[in-house]
TrEMBL record:
Its main location: periplasm. Pfam families: NMT1_2. Residues 1-29 form the signal peptide. The gene is ssuA_2. It is found in: Periplasm. Belongs to the bacterial solute-binding protein SsuA/TauA family. It comes from Microbispora amethystogenes. Keywords: Signal. InterPro entries: ABC_SsuA_sub-bd. This is Sulfonate ABC transporter substrate-binding protein.
Length: 334
């Protein structure tokens, strides 16, 4: 199970490239895929991250139907697969990080951010074993993380702050779940993981988080991202998705015990474990969304884009024109 993939070096991931080749192979020469008509079922993808499980609540409580949109929720065990599905048009919408969206756009995908789900404020962590108390002490050590994920990005941020680069550590790329298991088994000295895999990693005796997303406020924002095709052909459906999200947050606030059961079940963890993730995920209210879309996100996107280029995680800076579509959160009735 993976989350929050930053895009494989140098641009689109290998998996995405293969998917694109497969799509091309299935089409006849000159054939163009027809866009689904307005009013059709919208496929919304999400994966393992505390800030995205409210979508499960929206689905189970009929909040999409309430807002006039027919939605098929598609849960991805692999976050990378969800990114590739959106980039290739297999799904219409997906919850993903701004980092990943920028990387996809840099590779040619046409996507728009229409909602801020949350900011990671501690649930992405660099966890080290006994004897390591700071990122500076990672020099010469083995560090595992899923290459191209935001936890790889967090590692690079933490190393840079400590005056180091990836060349100063022995980086071992592996899937997030495998990385957490390898760390617990003592096969690597440190690991970059996100919740709920932080819980797994911290089972190693003497382990501790030496850097988290809380140390880099706003560096890892999460969003509802849709294809620009959907924005143009069915804006009412996009509005329905956005409005359903805020209805879900309201329902969760009014029925918290039941909501926690729904979200913990989807996450595959206990309710108590799920509640422990609350402090590490800052859910954005409607007001906070509107503030973010009033210029804050533009500055954050430029900062992330510059970092992706300087760290050689993408070949070139993504075009930012059309990236943000603020009209949908502005139209939500409080």
């Amino acid at each position: 199970m993976t989350r929050r993939h930053l895009a494989a070096v140098p641009s689109l991931s290998l998996a995405l490239l293969l998917a694109l080749l497969l799509l091309a192979g299935c089409a006849s020469p000159g054939e163009k895929q027809a866009a689904a008509p307005a009013g059709s079922t919208i496929t919304l993808g999400f994966s393992a991250w505390p800030g995205w499980f409210p979508w499960q609540v929206a689905g189970e409580q009929g909040l999409f139907r309430k807002n006039g949109v027919d939605v098929e929720l598609k849960y991805f065990d692999s976050y990378t697969d969800s990114l590739n599905a959106l980039a290739t048009g297999t799904i219409d919408a997906n919850s993903q990080t701004l980092n990943d969206t920028l990387a996809s756009v840099a590779g040619g995908a046409k996507q728009s951010v229409v909602l801020v789900n949350d900011n990671s404020s501690g649930n992405d962590q660099i966890i080290a074993g006994p004897g390591i108390s700071s990122p500076a002490e990672l020099k010469g050590r083995t560090v595992a993380a899923e290459q191209g994920t935001v936890d790889h990005y967090l590692l690079l941020l933490a190393l840079r702050k400590a005056g180091l680069t990836e060349a100063d550590v022995q980086f071992r790329p592996m899937p997030t779940d495998a990385a957490a298991a390898a760390f617990v088994a003592g096969q690597v000295d440190a690991v970059g993981v996100f919740a709920p895999f932080t819980t797994t990693a911290l089972k190693r005796k003497g382990s501790r988080a030496i850097a988290t997303s809380a140390d880099f406020p706003g560096a890892i924002p999460d969003h509802l991202v849709v294809t620009r095709d959907l924005v143009s052909r069915d804006p009412k459906a996009v509005q329905g998705l956005v409005s359903a999200w805020f209805d879900a947050l309201t329902w969760i606030g009014e029925h918290r015990p039941e909501a926690l059961q729904i979200m913990a079940k989807r996450a595959g963890v206990s309710v108590s474990d799920y509640e422990s993730y609350d402090k590490g995920t800052t859910i954005f209210t409607l007001e906070r969304n509107r503030t973010a879309f009033s210029g804050e996100l533009d500055g954050r996107a430029k900062e992330i884009a510059d970092f992706l280029v300087s760290s050689k995680l993408v070949d070139r800076a993504p075009p930012l024109e059309g990236l943000f579509a603020p009209q949908f959160v502005r139209a939500v009735q409080p």
